[in-house]
Amino acid sequence: MFRDIYVTFYQFLSTFGAMCLFFLRLLQHTPGVLVKRFGLVSYQIYNAGALSIVIIMVSGLFVGGVLGLQAYSNLERFNAEDTTGIFAGFALIKEIGPVITALLFAGRAGTALASEIGLMKATDQLSAMEMMAINPLSYVAVPRFLGGVISMPLLTAVFTTVGLLGAHLVAVELLGVDVGAYWQQLQSALDMEDVREGIIKSVVFGVVASLLAVWEGYNSIPTAEGVGRATTRTVVITAIAVLVFDFMITAWIL
């Protein structure tokens, strides 16, 4: 048992160290890619961000609606229905918006990135690039990494905005909360510190989700089964990492 624990811990440290070195290599090539291959980055922003906008908006609308229902039903007991906007705003901007957006990003864009890079490795496209003196990191990995990092804060903003709209529709239009009180209470309670917390989380989650997706695809076993396992690990590990970092950032800010 102790030997298995030691081997598992050693493998975790080895993988974590290799991933950190991989992240540093991505950062090393980032300035050159932004200058010379920004077209690839913009396409990856479209691939990871614009193509995910539908699921983000639909999810945000219904999540906001659920928050409106829950807030109203609980605050009604204390005759504080007008503060429904505060409940929905704090939950969406500081917590639910960045976290759920990151999980949806991992399920839609992260799996696409991992499987795409893994398939390129399985079909020897990465090796062919090396034979032609083209660095696969700067041509394949870095644009996809940057596309995910840039897309995540934008998707989080869309999710939060649509979620606030969904909460407004439920609380104001369906349940009869005063529209002026709803938005006035929300604006008076929130400040830039709350918005800054949501922005920090969205950026960190974007780096984590994009790095894990690119790492899993780039280091996958070049077989159909290996690509499938890499795609599965991308979703699972990203979900765990997002929740861990969410706790760490919240504890640090508080």
Question: Can I get a quick summary?
Answer:
The chain has 254 residues and is mainly α. The chain has helices at residues 2-36, 38-48, 53-75, 84-122, 125-131, 136-174, 179-189, 192-218, 224-253.
Explained architecture:
By secondary structure, the protein is mostly helical. The protein has one domain. 87% of the residues lie in helices and 0% in strands. It contains 9 helices and no strands. It has helices spanning 2-36, 38-48, 53-75, 84-122, 125-131, 136-174, 179-189, 192-218, 224-253. α2 (38-48) runs parallel beside α6 (136-174), α3 (53-75) packs parallel to α6 and α4 packs parallel to α8. The protein is elongated, with a radius of gyration of 21 Å. The protein starts with a helix and ends with a helix. The mean pLDDT is 89.
